[in-house]
């Protein structure tokens, strides 16, 4: 178990380390997925090992895991319950997907609540109106909040927090909405001036070109903060390439839920076809193993 006061500043400590590796975060939507992030180790061809540094509490996968649409139908209180389950199952710091953050008054409550739980950062996006998932891009109307209003929301959240360790991140949706690179850069400058501790650039394109172009221009700004990339669609790019371009944090935003659903569906259909479960034994974790794994995890 990790105390909230220690976990709260963990992301800032990770960002301050001297390394060529990005801070690497993976999506969680319950305690079991948090255990995956906690324990996963990858051995690379050169013999080095890699682990995840942080958890990403995704609003998309939180709502999908409840069978609800990703339009902020899941309340903040429901989301915070999922966050607590994940924190209980892992020692890793957490970055919270705060959608638009809601009204400034609601965002202040969210900031205080996350901070008390030991969450390291909250990302809010500069959109307004009925939420549409960013990966729809211009297929659906993506309304950007005006710069002054969103800047005021960031400032309100910064004023509400009690610790200097907590981070508020401005998520830039200008590329998603079709407003272009110059608009994204203008917003980055304004939101940094309003107090954002980091910015996230988002794109739905399959190639990383527009993200790399933005990062090159962003690096020329006089005042910069750490920048986050989320290579969900442009996943041919490597972490090393993103770090070379200036990214500090890389988030794998929805992969555990996307992996789980087809596997569960295949098991269900195989049971129906065979009228028994014997045929799925080879793809299932033994019952005793999962019981033992969860029992052992209580020592975190």
Could you explain the architecture of this structure?
This protein is an alpha/beta fold and 300 residues long. The protein has one domain (4-255): Phosphoenolpyruvate-binding domains (TIM Barrel). 45% of the residues lie in helices and 15% in strands. The chain is built from 13 helices and twelve strands. Strands 1-4-5-6-9-10-11-12 form an eight-stranded parallel barrel, surrounded by nine helices. A two-stranded antiparallel ribbon has the order 2-3. A two-stranded antiparallel ribbon has the order 7-8. The longest helix is centred in the C-terminal third of the chain and has 20 residues, at 255-274. The protein is globular, with a radius of gyration of 20 Å. The termini are close together.
Task: Present the secondary structure layout.
Elements lengths: L3 H5 L1 H7 L6 E6 L2 H9 L1 E3 L5 E3 L2 E4 L1 H7 L10 H14 L4 E4 L6 H14 L3 E5 L1 E2 L14 E2 L2 H14 L6 E6 L1 H4 L3 H13 L4 E4 L7 H10 L8 E3 L9 H7 L3 E4 L2 H20 L12 H11 L3
Parallel strand pairs: 1-4, 1-12, 4-5, 5-6, 6-9, 9-10, 10-11, 11-12
Antiparallel strand pairs: 2-3, 7-8
Helix pairs in contact: 3-5, 5-6, 6-7, 7-9, 9-10
The succession of helices and strands, N to C, reads HHEHEEEHHEHEEEHEHHEHEHEHH
Strand residue percentage: 15-25%
Q: Helix/strand/pairing class, anyone?
A: alpha/beta
**Which percent range fits the helix content?**
40-55%
Can you count the helices?
A: 13
- The structural domain count equals 1
CATH class: Alpha Beta
Which architecture does the CATH hierarchy give at level 2? Alpha-Beta Barrel
Strand arrangement, major sheet: 1-4-5-6-9-10-11-12
Counted beta strands: 12
Largest sheet: number of strands, sense, barrel closure: 8 strands, parallel, barrel
Radius of gyration: 20 Å
Low-confidence stretches: none
CATH topology description: TIM Barrel
Distance between the ends: 4 Å
Mean pLDDT across every amino acid position = 93
């Amino acid at each position: 178990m990790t105390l909230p006061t220690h976990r709260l500043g963990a992301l800032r400590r990770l960002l301050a380390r001297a390394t060529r590796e990005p801070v690497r975060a993976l999506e969680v939507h319950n305690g079991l997925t948090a255990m995956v992030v906690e324990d996963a180790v990858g051995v690379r061809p050169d013999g080095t090992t890699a682990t995840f540094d942080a958890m990403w509490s995704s609003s998309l996968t939180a709502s999908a895991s409840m069978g609800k649409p990703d339009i902020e139908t899941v309340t903040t209180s429901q989301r915070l319950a999922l966050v607590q389950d994940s924190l209980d199952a892992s020692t890793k710091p957490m970055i919270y997907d705060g959608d638009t953050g809601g009204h400034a008054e609601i965002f202040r409550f969210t900031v205080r609540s996350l901070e008390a739980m030991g969450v390291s950062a909250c990302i809010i996006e500069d959109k307004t109106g009925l939420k549409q998932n960013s990966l729809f891009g211009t297929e659906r109307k993506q309304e950007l909040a005006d710069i002054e209003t969103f800047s005021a929301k960031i400032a309100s959240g910064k004023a509400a927090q009690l610790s200097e360790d907590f981070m508020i991140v401005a998520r830039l949706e200008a590329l998603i909405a079709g407003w272009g690179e110059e608009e994204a850069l203008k917003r980055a400058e304004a939101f940094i001036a309003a107090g954002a501790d980091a910015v996230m650039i988002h794109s739905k394109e399959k190639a990383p070109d527009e993200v790399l172009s933005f990062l090159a221009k962003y690096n020329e700004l006089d005042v910069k903060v750490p920048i986050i990339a989320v290579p969900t669609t442009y996943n041919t790019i490597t972490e090393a390439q993103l770090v070379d371009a200036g990214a500090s944090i890389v988030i794998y935003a929805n992969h555990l839920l996307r992996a789980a659903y087809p596997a569960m569906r295949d098991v269900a259909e195989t049971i129906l076809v065979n009228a028994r479960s014997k045929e799925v034994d080879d793809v299932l974790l033994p019952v005793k193993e999962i019981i033992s794994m969860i029992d052992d995890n209580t020592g975190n």
